[in-house]
Amino acid sequence: MDSLVPWCVDGVEPEAQEAAKLSARKAGVPLGLWLSQTILSAAANELKRNNQVPAPRADPPPPALTSEVLLESIQRLANRIESAEERTVEGIRPLAEKVQQLTQRVEEVSSRANLSTAPMERALSRMSDRLEKLEAERAEHQGGRRGLFSR
Predict the structure, then answer these.
(1) Partner of 2 for a Cys bridge, out of 13, 31, 59, 130, CB 3.0 to 4.6 A?
(2) Is 89 left (phi over 0), alpha (psi -120 to 50) or beta?
(3) How big is the chain by its Cα radius of gyration, in Å?
(4) Residues 6, 19: contact at Cβ < 8 Å?
(5) What is the rounded distance in angstroms from the CA atom of residue 132 to the CA atom of residue 80?
(6) pLDDT 10s per residue in the chain (151 long)?
């Protein structure tokens, strides 16, 4: 059907295009035929108003836009928006997963940084005490030898 064929006419708003497609479908005629009939009918009415009568045409006038046609058009647009949103979510999903992974890594590093330093401080203090004790023993041991050699 014509509704599957892309249609672009400069100056015709997308809503008007959708309404035309729906009206043509409702009338059971191809879009091109519906547009031709509608344009000819509008032109004939305009010419009649200006006292210029064109050659009579046997084609029936196009169906009027009804609330049902407009609601159907709105529903189709809503479906297109929903579909676009789904595609966007699918496209962003890998990025969102990567951000989640990075967030977890940052939280892990942050939690490690917040660990207490008290155990390390105690260990460093014990090592310092042992070093002082060893230095004192060494000084005492060396001092004792000097005492022997100095006599």
Answers:
(1) 31
(2) alpha
(3) 44
(4) no
(5) 79
(6) 444 556 666 777 888 888 888 888 888 888 888 888 888 888 788 777 777 655 666 676 666 677 887 888 889 999 999 999 999 889 888 888 898 999 888 888 777 766 667 788 888 889 888 988 888 888 887 765 544 444 4
Cα 20 from Cα 12, distance rounded (Å) = 11
CB-count burial class (<10 Å; 0-12, 13-18, 19+) for 18: buried
Report the amino acid identity of residue 7: W
pLDDT given for residue 3 in this prediction? 47
* Cα–Cα distance, 141 to 111 (Å, whole number): 48
Alpha carbons within 13 A on the beta-carbon side of 151: 5
Q: Is there a contact between 59 and 37 (Cβ–Cβ < 8 Å)? A: yes
Per DSSP, the residues of 83-122 read HHHHHHHHHHHHHHHHHHHHHHHHHHHHHHHTS--HHHHH
pTM for the full predicted model: 0.32
Structure tokens at 112: 């490690």
Cα dist from 115 to 103, 108, 109, 118, 127, whole Å: 19, 11, 10, 9, 21
Question: Which of these, 81, 75, 73, lies nearest to 22 by C-alpha position?
Answer: 73
Amino acid at position 136, single letter: A
